[in-house]
């Protein structure tokens, strides 16, 4: 249990079983890019009917915890092996930018040479790949709305944090199969380049897990994999956005189909603005 993980001990098996089934078949879903349900959808989808009834029976048999009790996060999952990539400004390539209207943020996405070379060659991202994002708050106008620049992207105000993923040999070894993303580890860094306290890597792994056929990445795809997905209806372009996010159970509400959310590469419907994605 934590602030984001509910206490299941002692809950009725019938209730738990029903909820797990609803997560699995998508009946229980929440809108938005970072919904808690997306994590459960991803994990429950991997459970068989008998896994589900066993889990429900197991939790029902546990004694209930005191209100407000917290358990430690599993150390081998919560702890990341990734270190801050000190030289990213010099050696990584910026390949993507996304506006986040609800969070009033703009994020810049970088990839290292290993990841880019593989993506260009249409290969899965190998060990040694690093993807990295700078998260900025957007500059706000008098009515607290993000100010967009001439390129359509929010004007960055303050650097808030960094989020990152890196894969190296054996980094996935300690991670249970239900969560494991091959050898990827995930990390959030403070503006002081330290690991942000309280980050539970299990959440990152769960949400990226359904993207196993595209190297577990949402924004960087190799060309072969990309071409397998339909072009976005009105956006057209290289990243399969909505369709695949839907498949991953993430952007079920169509967050990415409005013009303000510029994940789409180029769209005449959105004034023909590029989303800043480099052609790979
Ligand atoms: C609820 C789902 C969800 C969770 C949880 C999640 N991500 Fe992601 N992640 C996404 C989506 C969607 C994107 C696409 C662009 C974006 O939202 O930034 C993404 C993109 C990324 C990227 C850019 C590379 C890529 O895959 O396109 C990194 C790096 C990343 N996430 C790291 C993390 C880390 C670190 C955590 C855990 C602290 C995490 N993510 C948790 C959904 C999630």
Mind explaining what this structure looks like?
The strands form two sheets. The chain has a five-stranded antiparallel β-sheet with strand order 1-2-3-4-5. The chain starts with 12 loop residues before the first helix and ends in a 6-residue tail after the last strand. The C terminus is likely disordered. It is an alpha+beta fold and 280 residues long. The chain folds into two domains: 59 residues, Cytochrome Bc1 Complex, Chain D, domain 2 (Orthogonal Bundle), CATH 1.10.760; 197 residues, 3-Layer(bba) Sandwich (Chalcone isomerase), CATH 3.50.70.20. β1 and β2 form a beta hairpin. The radius of gyration is 20 Å and the shape is globular. 35% of the residues are buried. Helix content is 25%, strand content 16%. α2 packs across α7. Heme C binds next to α2, β2, β3, β4 and β5.
Entry keywords:
280 residues; alpha+beta; Cytochrome Bc1 Complex, Chain D, domain 2; 5-stranded antiparallel sheet; 7 strands; disordered C terminus; binds heme C
**Helix share of residues?**
25-40%
Query: How many helices?
Result: 9
Number of domains: 2
Question: In the CATH scheme, what's the topology name of the largest domain?
Answer: Chalcone isomerase
The name of the CATH superfamily of the largest domain reads Cytochrome P460
Low-confidence stretches at least 5 residues in length (pLDDT < 50)?
Answer: 222-280
| Bound compounds | heme C
The counted number of beta strands is 7
Shape: globular
Could you state the order of secondary-structure elements as H and E? HHHHHEEHEEEHHHEE
> What is the mean pLDDT?
79
Question: Between the first and last Cα atoms, what is the distance in angstroms?
Answer: 42 Å
Strand order of the largest sheet: 1-2-3-4-5
Name the CATH architecture of the largest domain: 3-Layer(bba) Sandwich
Write down the CATH class of the largest domain: Alpha Beta
What would you report as the Rg, rounded to the nearest angstrom? 20 Å
Biggest sheet descriptor: 5 strands, antiparallel
Give the strand content. 15-25%
Alpha-beta classification: alpha+beta
